[in-house]
Automatic annotation (TrEMBL), chain A:
SUPFAM superfamilies associated with the record: Ribosomal protein L20
GO cellular component terms, A-Z: mitochondrial large ribosomal subunit; mitochondrial ribosome
Protein name: Large ribosomal subunit protein bL20m
Family, as annotated: Belongs to the bacterial ribosomal protein bL20 family.
Provenance organism: Drosophila melanogaster
Family matches, as Pfam families: Ribosomal_L20 (PF00453)
Alphabetical keyword list: Ribonucleoprotein, Ribosomal protein
The keyword Ribonucleoprotein is assigned to this record: yes
UniProtKB/TrEMBL annotation, chain B:
Lineage: Eukaryota, Metazoa, Ecdysozoa, Arthropoda, Hexapoda
GO biological process assignments: mitochondrial translation
GO cellular component: mitochondrial large ribosomal subunit
Record family assignment: Belongs to the bacterial ribosomal protein bL21 family.
Coiled-coil segments: none
The protein's name in its UniProt record: Large ribosomal subunit protein bL21m
Molecular function (Gene Ontology), one example: RNA binding
Record keywords, A-Z: Ribonucleoprotein, Ribosomal protein
Gene it is expressed from: mRpL21
A family per Pfam: Ribosomal_L21p
InterPro entries: bL21-like, bL21-like_sf, Ribosomal_bL21
Amino acid sequence: MVFLNLPLLVRSRGPDEFWRKRRIFKLAAHYRSRTRNVYSFAIRSVHRALAYATKGRKLKKLDMAQLWSTRVEAGCQQYGVGLETFKEGLARSDILLNKKVLSDLAIWEPRSFEALVKISRERAAVEGMPDIKRRSAFNQVYGLSNLKLD
Amino acid sequence: MSFLAQTMRQMLRHVPNRSLLTAGAMRPLSISPVIGQQNKPATESVDLSAIAKDQQKECLSICERINRQVQKSEQGRLFAVVHLCGKQFKVTPGDIILVEGYWPPTIGDEISLDKVLLAGARDFTLVGRPILEPGLILVKATVVEKTLSHTKTHFRKKRRKQYMRINFQRSPHTMVRINSIELARPVDGNGEGESSSRRLF
């Protein structure tokens, strides 16, 4: 009885097992104990790590956006302006800086950030946004003070 | 105490926002169809004649002070926020910024970054609406390296379903060094607000 079906040859793995396992062991070289030495443990950890890496690339962008929001919010809260009011005031003033750049300015250029908060606050006061009721006494934004509130 | 108050007032005054001095400062958002934003129209439109005389004089004195400082080269090191390939970078001379994806300039090309959203020095800040006037701030840069990123693994596996796919990708990266940031023209209070709004952002 001779087996002539070619798909049955798939059962024979041949001499490449060493190299196939070596590829997994190279990825698992920095793990500890049996996940480094035993193939059945190593391939589970390697697959989980690769799946985490793929998901983590998307999660990192969300984490960075959340970090920038937190920093910008902390920066403008020390001037008494909320984050939504700040963003809306900047957008209505045609200033299109994004949150990454705003967080950099809040940390490294505090006086420029203070100027942006003042522009935004004055705009919010002039256009009657719900958070800001009146102008700040230290306002230095020219060109807007002739507008009446209400 | 009065000296302290005067110093405080002078410190606060040292952050002028030049672009708010332009005519039509309450102009509605020029590119609101592009970004789909709901913009509430201003209660009234303001032109230069409506600004009080003393404020106009104060604006002019602030611009004169900036120009005098720039003439004597006392402004320190400038920083700028530039818009490049859909991203915004806060740059200062000597920085290296990374442009991801395909970008046509080759190694050695000297380029000028024209879309400056904000520029500042030690004592003043120029805020663009949305960008500063063309030619006001000159940002020169040089492409120093074109390389590929590290290998990113795209791995998908469905357990107990015999499904496993793995792809590797390396995206092109271009490194750009910022050579100089200069204030090319004196700052005046009558910026041409209309010309910058006509440009595509």
